[in-house]
Amino acid sequence: MIFSGIRRGSPALARLVNPRYLPVAVTIGLFLLAYIVAGARYTGIATVQVLCNLLIDNAFIIVSAVGMTFVILSGGIDLSVAAVIAFTSMLSAALLERASLSPAIVIPIVLMVGTTLGAGMGALIQYFKIPPFVATLAGMFLARGACFLISIEAIPITNPWYASVAQFQVPVPGGFVSPNVVVALVVLAVGMVILHYTSFGRTVYAIGGNEQSALLMGLPVARTKVLIYALNGFCSALAGVVYTLYVLSGYGLYANGYELDIISAVVIGGTPLIGGSGFLLGTFFGVLIQGLIQVVITFDGTLNSWWTRIVVGMLTLFFIVMQRWLHAQGQKVE
Amino acid sequence: MRSQKGQRMATISLKPKSSSSSLAWAGLALLLIMVFNLIFTPGFFSLQIRDGHLFGSVIDILTFGAPYMVLAIGMTLVVATGGVDLSVGPVAAIAAAVVTSLIGRATDYSAMPLPMAVLIALGIAALCGLWNGVLIAYLGIQPIIATLILMVAGRGIAQLITKGQIITVYYEPFHFIGGGFLVLPFSLFIVAGVALLASLLVRRTALGLFIEAIGNNASASFYSGVAEKNIKLMVYTISGLCAGIAGVIISSNVRSADANNAGLWYELDAILSVVIGGTPLTGGRFSLLGSLLGALIIQSLTTTIYSFGVAPEVTLVVKAVVVCVVSLLQSEQFRQMVRLGRA
User: Global pTM?
Assistant: First the structure.
């Protein structure tokens, strides 16, 4: 809608690349460029296994960022995701180790808890008009606090099923990935199908574009909004399961501050925080870019890891300014 | 008949909420916590005089609450314009990193005169706020995103300044700022000074009116000649400055700067103080006194939980409940539901 103006105004640019796809194209281009430059500069980065490790280390962020993309596409925000990841790890560890439950029971329980928490926050947002920021802030406090109610110490997981899954290697040509990566890629694929091929997905875009219009069009705005936060709660809990398998323990301070990395990954992936446009593929590459920065810093050895935060901040700014510019271009022509 | 009733309710609810009523709520909450402590926490209100100054749980609340109160003052103005500042925690960490590295680790002297070091730290914090303000007012980026950038990058910057170490300061006069006493904790005098300045600024000049106008309707106030951009710039700079003051107080109190943990989750507590104090997150009418009370409520909750020997992290659950209750009380939909239930 915004971009139709650009198409009319500068047909050359429009023919080259549909402006709707421009942010996501920039993200993918930036990742490829960074990967090529890094591969040329540091020997060893341009191997399949490093790429696989990039996926292994960031699998849980991908899962969580998929849910966050739905929330941000609808114009909302969810600050509770990292806290839910930590709570899932804690609850899983407590149920496995202290209550000696089977993983076949534990995993459905934690997924249900995450989904319920998400739906609860969605209900507060939709029915009591509490700003998403405040409602999910409360959710964040609740989930983090609940971790420490279980225990203020870390709980190691010794369950044999968890241990064997954590060590399992899925072979790929030239290397291996963990089962977590498979989960992450499946979530990404399912997310894409939901977003692009269901009426739920179209309603998410419509709400982000203009909630009032979506309401007037007769779309089920209320139901969809609660479902979006429930879906994100589910994704956070699943990310928590993936993370628990990665670290094989539960701890209340896990993923501290990661809500921002997840939100920035979505923004770097080309979804503006006002919602309405963006793609899950962009989010995927947004996560990979952040991961690549960390890999480069590790390979370099002289750079300090705190540069990661600064570079991620600068990249986020770059994408926000680009989106503002595209938006302004569209309005100018109209 | 029924719709008429609904209409009447709507008119009642549209009446502007006076800030005095939300002040009463905040005061009541604080009173409840205090009464609870009076009954269940022995010795909570006992004050002792040791080394010529006062000691006790109440004094603890005031001492540890001081940085929150300063942050809440800056955050109130930001929230009143309809914005939010997520970067106050990292900005506090940056100010702490700057002031401690300028003073240095020597025991008997400071590498730079103390007032100068503090002024430079506050100046850099104000610059951080100015940066947020430019992004928001002149580039038109949403406040939550613009300040998110500094929130993400800020801790990295603080790490660069401290070179990744925790800088410990042994110079005694520095410790006075956040840990000294003039009968009462010295940091309280700083809070009083900031609060006084801020309230003079917003109540004796037109600034307060302009801030509320922007929060109520930014474009309407723009067309009626309010210099919306400059006021936003100013408000975020003040918020940065307040974060800087809080950072200096915190680092002085613990005699060190930890880039990773100084001011961690402070932004959320500051926003919470403002909301509890009755300033709606949508902007408009604000109450500085309410936010100060809000900060005290949060700190009292924390201290109360400490004195029960519960893990301090559990306060988060209590905070979650408080956020929910307060935002439900402020929610028009919730109020209507309660009214319908009664009728």
Answer: 0.85
